[in-house]
Amino acid sequence: xxxxxxxNILEDLVAMMHEVPGLRVETRKKLPVVKGKVKRxxxxxxxxxxxxxxxxxxxxLGCKNEAKTLGTTDxxxxxxxxxxxxxxxxxxxxxxxxxxxRDSQDAADWRGMRTLVxxxxxxxxxxxxxxxxxxxxxxxxVSQSNLNRFPYVPxxxxxxxxxxxxxxxxENEPSATQLMTRLWELWVSDVIPAEIGEHHILxxxxxxxxxxRI
Length: 214
Prior knowledge:
The chain has helices at residues 3-17, 72-84, 102-109, 123-144, 176-188; strands spanning 24-32, 41-52, 55-64, 92-96, 114-117, 163-168, 200-205. It is an alpha/beta fold. It folds into two domains: 3-143, 3-Layer(aba) Sandwich (Trna Endonuclease, Chain: A, domain 1); 147-214, no CATH class. The strands form two sheets. It has a five-stranded mixed sheet with strand order 1-2-3-4-5, sandwiched between helices. The protein has a two-stranded parallel ribbon with strand order 6-7. Helix 3 (102-109) links the parallel strand 4 and strand 5. Helix 2 runs parallel beside helix 3 (102-109). The protein is elongated. InterPro entries: Restrct_endonuc_IV_Mrr. Residues 37-110 form the Restriction endonuclease type IV Mrr domain.
């Protein structure tokens, strides 16, 4: 049996363990790369999609059906794929048949990435890890989504260097969902600095006749 065939078996088993109402489970899913100048995609082993507080959240599982324990290179490759498709490391879960070296476990831990061993893995245990990943997203949304709306001024902050200017193609004042989606896109595209601190972002309409600023 080829290595790919063995990997596909593990991916299908992991996917079947979490096919429950409210979750969409897909295997060998191609996701678009969010960075880079060339339009391309990367394949993830198992993609689980759910809605959290009205926002779509994706959990990626990397499945390794190999005869040896996973090393740091395996963790680094998985982390690199997550970064390329714009999914945080905390929303990645590695599943290995043979376990992990001490170094690879440390490499996953400092990223906040979850690791599981398939032997003895139950649907309940897998569900607990996926729910923990979903809960971390709820915390991030609640703690990071303070939005201030200012009175409309035609040129308010457009040329102000203190603001990060962002355009939204919305005739009416955008909803919280639209704003959070655009904030995410700006962050993974490195428009919003990664440093912890306070960042001022001015959302402007694409249509100059629209009467809103945020």
